[in-house]
Amino acid sequence: MEHVFKGTTIALVQGDITTVEADAIVNAANSSLMGGGGVDGAIHRKGGPTILDECRDYVAAHGSLPTGEAMITTGGDLPASHVIHTVGPVYQGGKHGEFVKLERAYTQSLLLAKEHGLKTVAFPSISTGAYRFPIDEAAYVALNTLKRVIAEHEGAFDRLSMVLFSQADFDVYAATFDEVITTMMG
Ligand code: ADP
Fold this sequence. Notes:
Blueprint: E1 2-5, E2 8-14, E3 24-28, H1 38-47, H2 49-62, E4 70-74, E5 82-86, H3 98-115, E6 120-123, H4 135-152, E7 159-164, H5 167-182
Parallel strand pairs: 2-7, 3-5, 3-6, 6-7
Antiparallel strand pairs: 1-2, 4-5
Helix pairs in contact: 3-4, 4-5
């Protein structure tokens, strides 16, 4: 499922993000940057030890990565050239700034990609696993943020994709995609 908006293709894909060829894939990391479960574990397992080494160097120099911020490493053994690590919020009922923090995780990842001249970027569904963000609301934040950043940085990106691990997650994003992306003007 895809749609071209202001010259950038926005795509929804069902699959495993560690198999995606892109200038960057995004990791739903935690602040320690030392790996974890879910997509984080999968990326480090497939990407090999150099990614963790780079994360360790980053933490030694800058400290842990705050929620909503992003940093970049190479892609190690992954087909993707780079990994952008960002930290989504833990969902605590929705009244603790979770929506703004989730939006910021997507935005900061894209700004970092732009800074590095990376034109194709694939995201997992940040915060909707162990961090328990309701997926329908997370889909709305994710897709609206991609759309806003594309409009604010026209020409910066060729292809931005959301890679959903399960068919159920894909279906939720697909419904939101129709509402937020396919039917929009311009
Ligand atoms: P968080 O801690 O941000 O919630 P998780 O990794 O627990 O991160 O979950 C985020 C999303 O990533 C979940 O929807 C989960 O199904 C998905 N996920 C897990 N493994 C992969 C993978 N290999 N590729 C794409 N998405 C994945």
